Amino acid sequence: MTAPDGLEAALDKMRADGARPVAVDTFRHFYERLRAGEAGELREADIEPVDEAMDYDDLPDGSAAPLDEAVVLKLNGGLGTSMGMTQAKSLLEVKEGLTFLDVMVRQVLALRESSGARIPLVLMNSFATRDDSLEALGRHEAIASDVPLDFVQNRVPKIRADDLMPVEWPANPQQEWAPPGHGDLYPALVASGMLDALLEHGYRYAFVSNSDNLGATLDPRILEWMAREEVPFVDEVAVRSEQDRKGGHLARRRNGGNLVLRELAQTADDDVDAFQDIRRHRFFNTNTLWFDLRALKHTLAEHDGVLPLPMIVNRKTVDPSDKSSTPVIQLESAMAAAIDVFEGAQALRVPKSRFAPVKTTDDLLLVRSDAYALDSRAHLEPVREPAPVVRLDPEFFKLIGWLEERFPAGPPSLVAADRFEVVGDVRFGRDVVVRGEVLVSGPRQVGDGEVLS
């Protein structure tokens, strides 16, 4: 009897789930590479450091930017489960009673008003975030444009690590599926029809960033430079600090090859020290990028509809909360890794003020505080640089509910802080002020108006 074929079983499962052909073909491409023995690693011996990149300060003033040809794409598939959320992360209140999504809408409407350009806001949702996010967008009638408000990212089967068959998990069938990383942006644009819709309506340039990074906005200076120099793909990078040691970094393939992005998940164990050497690999990927929609269409055609992105082999268990459950492989890719695919792609060194992601409650407390402010364009920017470092004890502050229970009156003033660290169970009163470097140990109640310095 012939043994079942893992690839065909996985593809059948995707088709039964309603996956479009381009999503099926992309998964096939990565599965075949996995089955051929590719480990998804980018070895230190095969790359070399990048010492220089085009600098934001050297860009034109933006007055000639083709804003009427630009679209803002926001990755909006995350649920914020690591912080205890069960809805779209972008619906979390972030500043002055506004959610991430509210602020994104304000940013785009402000740019429309100042430029007269049409500039659509388009979300890449997941099945889990779509309904809530579209309902929230419905409260902003002015954000409508001549293209749909969203498209939905694909999902792919998790593969058993032992025999490469699609995993079965009757206890929770939803856990048999995984998002294929944000590199899914490109097949999802095609599968949804959004790429063709944008091109048909005369859009050419896509600005892409995560919905939780309100520091990343459509900047006319970058757009003008990109259009003037006919750069097909731009990845925004920033100089690494100790806090960025685990983030994906920029490199170049040896012997004058293309620029590449290397993630920690693509790094062999004996290369981790080199990966985390911030003096050797100076620039980290902010996961904010720009690309020419026409160039994407052309590049897809050159590769039979599938971008040959570097593969990430993510090894987990089918139930991430149960380490004894079946070991699986999730086949993923990173959207910024397309810098290796587009001919003539460039990296752009940007100020760290364009990088303000909220991945933890530490980040959330910081951007909610007076250390960050929304300006008249709804840009979220640090009041002074560098912004303070916040470290909260995860045992007591990891989840949103825990954070808000311990800061019931809102965050302390952090505008004069350099570092704010909390260890143990500490509860904070109203109008607390933090100055300089402060470590607070619990159990403790910090009183109203208390100054910590």
Give a verbal description of the structure.
- The protein is an alpha/beta fold and 453 residues long.
- Helix content is 24%, strand content 26%.
- It is built from 12 helices and 26 strands.
- Strand 6 (121-125), helix 4 (130-137) and strand 7 (150-152) form a beta-alpha-beta unit.
- The mean pLDDT is 95.
From the N-terminal CA to the C-terminal CA, the straight-line distance is 74 Å
Radius of gyration: 22 Å
- Beta-strand level of the residues, as a percent range? 25-35%
* Mass-distribution shape: globular
Count of β-strands: 26
Quickly list its features.
single chain; 453 residues; alpha/beta; eight-stranded mixed beta sheet; four-stranded parallel beta sheet; 26 strands; globular
